[in-house]
């Protein structure tokens, strides 16, 4: 059963108490989609992924690997290997105890890895904000639709009560 679209300004004034042009853009979009009876939800992750640059995707992959068990295990093996090799080589070691060169390598890795992880976290926060905005729009539309349904149910209930009263009056007149 198809329904004709409703005037967006009527929906806006009825359920939000403001004209459509007085609403923020996101709420006006919800009102228009409600009036046109079309969905408002979208896949924010897909839209966000389409806008990422190569560097951003690379940073996300580096951050994902840097915060994983395979990285921790591989790096632990690397550190153990470095230490054991330099202890076994003793006098010919390329980085003898106290492993000054290893400290330099670790510092450089941390200096590069930390900003990359922070860039990835900033993008995740931006994606979360988009997702929250989309959730707000979907929830607002659901709330408007529920209020409209409640209005229709109340209208139907009132009509049903009128019809019941009319039937009772007719039955009472017929019984006389």
Characterise the protein shown here.
The chain has helices at 8-16, 25-35, 44-50, 54-66, 69-89, 100-175. The protein has two domains: 1-38, no CATH class; 53-149. It is built from six helices and no strands. The protein has 176 residues and is mainly alpha-helical.
Would you summarize the structure shown here?
The chain is mainly alpha-helical and 176 residues long.
Average per-residue pLDDT, rounded, comes to 90
Rg value: 33 Å
User: How much helix is in the residues?
Assistant: over 70%
**SS content category:** mainly alpha
Order of helices and strands: HHHHHH
Number of domains: 2
What is the 3D form?
A: rod-shaped
**How many individual β-strands?**
0
Binned strand content: under 5%
Low-confidence stretches: none
Main sheet makeup: none
For the record, give the distance between the C-alpha atoms at the N and C termini, rounded to a whole number: 44 Å
Count of runs of 4 or more consecutive helical residues: 6
Descriptors:
single chain; 176 residues
Summarize the helices and strands and which ones pair or pack:
Elements: H1 8-16, H2 25-35, H3 44-50, H4 54-66, H5 69-89, H6 100-175
Helix pairs in contact: 1-2, 2-6, 4-6
């Amino acid at each position: 059963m198809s329904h004709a679209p409703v005037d967006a300004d009527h929906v806006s004034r009825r359920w939000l108490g403001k004209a459509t042009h007085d609403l923020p853009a996101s709420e006006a979009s919800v009102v228009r989609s409600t009036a046109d009876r079309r969905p408002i939800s979208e896949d924010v992750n897909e839209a966000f992924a389409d806008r990422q640059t190569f560097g951003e995707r690379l940073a996300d992959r580096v951050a994902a690997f840097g915060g994983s068990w395979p990285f921790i295990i591989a790096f632990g093996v690397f550190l153990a290997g470095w230490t054991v090799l330099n202890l076994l080589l003793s006098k010919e070691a390329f980085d003898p105890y106290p492993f000054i060169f290893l400290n330099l390598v670790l510092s450089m890795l941390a200096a590069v890895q930390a900003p990359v992880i922070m860039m990835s976290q900033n993008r995740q926060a931006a994606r979360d904000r988009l997702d929250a905005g989309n959730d707000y729009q979907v929830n607002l539309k659901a709330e408007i639709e529920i209020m409209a349904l409640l209005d229709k149910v109340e209208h139907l209930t009132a009509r049903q009560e009128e019809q019941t009263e009319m039937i009772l009056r007719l039955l009472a007149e017929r019984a006389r």
